[in-house]
Amino acid sequence: MNSTPSPPSSPPSRLTTIKDSLMVVILAGIILFATERVLSRLHEVVVVVLLSLTLVIVLNPLVKLLTHWVPRNWAVVIVVVTALLIFFGSVGGLLSVIVLQLQVLAKQLPSDIERLTPLFLTFLKNAGIQLNITQIKHTALQHASVVSTQAIHDTVRVLRGIVTGVVDTVLIIILTVYMLLDAPRIASSLKHLIPSDRLPAVLAVEQTVAHVVGGYVRGQLLLSLIIGVAFGLGTAIIGLPDAITIGAIAAVSELIPLLGPVIGSLLPLIFALLNHPGIHVPEVLVMLLGIHLLESDVLGPRIMRDQLGLHPVISIIALLIGATWLGIWGALFAVPAAGIAVAGIRAGSGAWRAYANTVPKGPESL
């Protein structure tokens, strides 16, 4: 005797779909809160790992390219050694130029102070402000011991920071090398752990992350190069000394989120104050305003939009959130994280629309 066929299961109603979506949002909020509590206590470890992963994403395409001619181990060695030589060579060359210019500035400083002091005192006198130089010297001597003690504490803190930075740099290099060497094996292991029907989605996520992070790095390097050239040309046209040094420092400082533009603007202002301030300071201020407008209104939004697909407002909000949460490191990773999140939201909304179109309207939606 034939068994009675079971009635076909009814498709999920829109109310059920909304309930499921709310549960997903609540669970995502709980996961994000727990992640924030963990990362706030382990942010140094997280920063080291994130920097290593970023370097892996940036350097792995070069390693893959070289594997057409040499084994992967040699490709990793060539790429990492070349990257280290470029990085430390650039930093060393820049530091040597900065030290040389500081020595020149130190030699010129006494004569500049002697030349500028009467002008400054005359300006204050005309403004009705009287200064007692003897009292100022006496107060400075009284605070000299306090300043020297604070300088010792600051020196110890700086040395501790240098040691920590060296250790973190070594750890980042080691992690990057190991992950580059084992990238194929890690990818193969992960593919075996992921169900075959979910593998295309996971690969799409991996490609999105690589595209966003790589695009962010390329965009930052391009923006840094353009800003450095603009600073160098601008100071050379104005007539300030050491235009190449000013441009190089501006290019490097541009890589620092939030504080970079401020740091890059200090050196041309200092040189302008020491060399005919009445003429050069207004010219430098106009140059800084023009470069800032070029960066914030033209280059920055266009480069970030082309590389990450982010609106400038989202980039600024991400920077503020990252800086508030994890300081300078949070600001560094905030924009690529926002790019990944926006890409995920776009993909999720597309999948949601595709799913919603396949669900027929039930009685509850009528």
TrEMBL record:
Family, as annotated: Belongs to the autoinducer-2 exporter (AI-2E) (TC 2.A.86) family.
Source organism: Sulfobacillus benefaciens
InterPro entries noted in UniProt: AI-2E-like
Coiled-coil residues: none
Membrane-spanning parts: 21-39, 45-63, 75-100, 158-181, 221-240, 246-271, 314-343
Alphabetized UniProt keyword annotations: Cell membrane, Membrane, Transmembrane, Transmembrane helix, Transport
Record's bilayer topology term: Multi-pass membrane protein
Listed GO CC annotations: plasma membrane
Protein's recorded name: AI-2E family transporter
Localisation: Cell membrane
GO BP terms, alphabetized: transmembrane transport
